[in-house]
Amino acid sequence: MNSSISSHRTTLTVSAMAILLLAALLLTLQYSYGVGTTTYSLARYIWINWNENEDMGHGFLILPAVCFLIYHDRKRLLSMTPRCGWGGLPLLIAGLLLFWAGNQADVTFAGLVSIMMVIAGSVWWLLGWDFLKALSFPIGFLIFAIPFPGLDMLVALPLRFIMSKLSVLVLNLLGIPVILNGTGILSAPDATLHLAAGQRFAVDVANPCSGIRSLFALMMVGSLFAHFTLKEAWKKWVLFLCALPLAVLGNFVRILTLTLGTVAFGSEFAIGKNPLTDPSWFHLGAGYLVFIVALIGMMGIAALLERIPSSSGGALKSDQTEASKPISPVVENKPLDLY
């Protein structure tokens, strides 16, 4: 028995080292990127994005989180028996081919996706399907480390319009007359005071205020929160998908707070002299509202989901109730002997 356990752990150790070495090799190979003859490795490309792209600032937390997830589930992983899964070999080969194709076509995103395919295929091939299912969340969590191309046009711009339209609607309902100019929120013109549109105050919902920065960070936090607080897969997916509207809601509260602060105390107090290079303390503090609102929302949704009984919960509970009832002694129906 001890020799079998030792053999399993040796197989796990060797397989893990092989998978890590293969992933490290692909990450450090020179990979075409940019214009001209300059080449970068995928590891350098990721590192530059984590450092310089403010939308990817959460990337530094990904690898520690993955290591913690695997460590947290170590007992279950060590109790499993490694088995060669030949179904993973085609996935591994497909990942390597995608890596090569992305290198030839100068598509960095394809190379990053290929490494996830290689990791998943290697786990399946070397350790088996059960291990791939057990490690599916840590492997899938790596998607948050990948910079997605074209997000400014696909996500940030639509979010800017949504935020600005919602803010204008609510401010007018609150009795603060404003008009919408593109993604800018301007004070309405006042003929009696001879004020033009935007003369009293003006707030622009720029790309950093669109919510894209908080969106991916909150989706990452939401996936972790769902993983550790909920048991059923569909409940985890519901909570994870709620991260998007919760991020929009939190960012809406932030923009509304900044606009009200500008109306009450002026632009320099609420926004700062330059919102990009010299934001005010009020502007910086309002950024935390996004996470506060979203996290409160996540806890509320998780509490509601926990109240929903599982599909097998009722039967299981009734079986447990019947099993837990004390067995009463059988008493024969005999007349009492009084003598």
Number of strands: 7
Radius of gyration: 28 Å
In which order are the strands of the major sheet placed?
A: 3-4-5
Helix content: 55-70%
Whole-number count of domains: 2
* Class computed from helices, strands and strand pairing: mainly alpha
Largest sheet: 3 strands, antiparallel
Q: List unreliable stretches of 5+ residues.
A: 314-324, 327-339
Report what the structure shows.
- The chain is mainly alpha-helical.
- It folds into 2 domains: 2-148, no CATH class; 152-309, no CATH class.
- The chain is 65% helix and 6% strand.
- It has helices spanning 2-28, 42-52, 62-72, 74-79, 88-105, 108-127, 129-134, 136-141, 151-173, 212-229, 233-241, 243-265, 267-270, 281-307, 313-324; strands at 30-32, 39-41, 178-181, 184-187, 202-204, 272-274, 278-279.
- A hairpin with a 2-residue loop joins strand 3 and strand 4.
- Helix 10 (212-229) packs across helix 12 (243-265).
- The termini are far apart.
